Amino acid sequence: VYSRVAGVYPLSDLRDAAPANVVILQGEFEQRAAGDVTVLVQSTERYQLWIDAEPVPSESAVTRSLSAGRHALSLRIELSDHDAPTLRVELQTPADSSAKFELVGGT
């Protein structure tokens, strides 16, 4: 699943394929150096977020200290009747963090 140029994914594309209007999306990133990483989420829909297998608060910005290695972001999204439901997820390194990461591409 790929987003538009601005990084926003139109969730309406998934609505027809989602029984009970719930979808699970997952992405991975490789943490090259341990440290803090901030996950920013913007969505018109209700969601639950996990970093690896740990549930985290459904806030617009969540910062976690992560070890080096591969990590997974998982989102459970409840699709509403919103005309244009969207999702945008961004990873950032806080200014005082030594973390380095790169996204793992899909096939």
Describe the model.
The chain is mainly beta. 4% of the residues lie in helices and 55% in strands. It has one helix at 12-15; strands at residues 9-10, 22-33, 35-43, 46-51, 54-56, 61-66, 69-78, 86-92, 100-103. Strands 5-4-7-2-9 form a five-stranded antiparallel β-sheet, with no helix packed on it. The radius of gyration is 14 Å and the shape is elongated.
Radius of gyration: 14 Å
Number of helices: 1
Summarize model confidence as the mean pLDDT. 87
Please mark out the parts with pLDDT under 50 across 5 or more consecutive residues, or reply none: none
Helix proportion of residues, in percent? Answer: under 10%
Biggest β-sheet description: 5 strands, antiparallel
Which range does the strand content fall in? over 45%
Order of neighbouring strands in the sheet with most strands: 5-4-7-2-9
Tell me briefly what this model is.
The chain contains 1 helix and 9 strands. The chain is mainly beta and 107 residues long. A hairpin with a 2-residue loop joins strand 4 and strand 5.
Annotate the secondary structure layout.
Elements: E1 9-10, H1 12-15, E2 22-33, E3 35-43, E4 46-51, E5 54-56, E6 61-66, E7 69-78, E8 86-92, E9 100-103
Antiparallel strand pairs: 1-8, 2-7, 2-9, 3-6, 3-8, 4-5, 4-7
Label this structure with key terms.
4% helix; 1 helix; five-stranded antiparallel β-sheet; mainly beta; four-stranded antiparallel β-sheet; 9 strands; 107 residues
